């Protein structure tokens, strides 16, 4: 039993070092193509190693009462060497990352000075990852805790979740290169990219756009949900926008009268049935957006608060926000401040002149890392910002803001804004829904989920 507990402690230490390495490596910025390829390989390897250790740790927890001698010896030995390699990799990666380019500061990374040393560390790490994997397979074979088929499914799922993806690649190439691709989309509403409707006054919009938005607002105001959902579809097919959070727009002279009531707020006001709210959520409605004015106790109400004010009991559960990206409130606030600072640095005084409603990042905590599109209606055609919240950073792509056909990537964190040429993510970070390997007759054997 003591050996198993030691194995659990060693696994915990290894997981901590893996996390440190990932955090440092993901802050690593370099424009040299060869270095990007190396970074891809390293992140994939460290992620896969972390997953393997997590699997081993969970197995040891299940065997924590075992008294078999030597049951975890091979794993402990493998982790000893692994931890030393990870410590060296963290130290080297920290040195490299300290030379990264920062927003407003042009500093080149001297990758060639550390390349050979990192290559040797990666070679060692690859060998040690194999040793950990072999220890895991052997332990399960000796204890008959998992069948060979179950082990293959778990390791395959683990490998898939540690694959590296490039942020915004699909959205840029397939969705936002031409708005017509959005108009012709036959996707279900819940799978479409959400739109942040930051333009609240009627300037810079076509008569067709304003007429359609006005008809939507009238239908929402009167609770005519069939018309509302028809207008949602028309808006998407015609303009490539999801209007699930659309407030009533105002002329510039009436800006001070903006109430910012969304369709979700109006659904509460009309005591709409649950299935209507479910459809609004499919069209991208956020549960945490607040009004600017109301006739109730407070001017700034979320839909759930409004439901409590009006005692719309049947909507309490469905309107309760489900936080999928938990961040400390002060961290989220600082990231939001830096994101707004980034937008103001690129758009300039027009942010205030055009009365833009800048993104509220609390809404993104409801998402599983999905991308949101914030169109900017003045300036170059197709201008706007793609952004997604992953971990404790906001990944942003500025599109056609600085010039026609311009694209700039940023990683917005609580301490600063980092400009980069590519952003790597683990495939598993892009969805919170974990792939459980559960057979009908073995459900009791799987008390855990895989995390990346």
Describe the overall structure.
It comes from Sordaria macrospora (strain ATCC MYA-333 / DSM 997 / K(L3346) / K-hell). This is WGS project CABT00000000 data, contig 2.32. The structure is a single chain. By secondary structure, this protein is α+β, with helices and mostly antiparallel strands. It has two domains: 2-166, I/LWEQ domain, CATH 1.20.1410; 170-430, no CATH class. Helix content is 48%, strand content 8%. The chain contains 15 helices and eight strands. Strand 3 (372-375) and strand 4 form a beta hairpin. Helix 8 runs antiparallel to helix 9. It is elongated. The relative contact order is 0.11. Residues 29-34, 100-109, 172-185 and 432-452 have low confidence and may be disordered.
What overall geometry do the principal axes of the alpha carbons give?
elongated
Q: Which strand order does the major sheet show?
A: 2-3-4-5-6-7
Number of strands: 8
Q: Roughly what fraction of the amino acids lie in strands? A: 5-15%
The overall pLDDT, averaged over residues, is 79
Fraction of helical residues: 40-55%
Counted up, domains total 2
Number of helices: 15
Characterize the main sheet: 6 strands, mixed
Rg, nearest Å:
25 Å
Protein structure class: alpha+beta
The sequence of SSEs as H and E is HHHHHEHHEHHHHHHHHEEEEEE
Low-confidence segments, given as residue ranges, are: 29-34, 100-109, 172-185, 432-452
N/C terminus separation? 28 Å
Protein name: WGS project CABT00000000 data, contig 2.32
Organism: Sordaria macrospora (strain ATCC MYA-333 / DSM 997 / K(L3346) / K-hell)
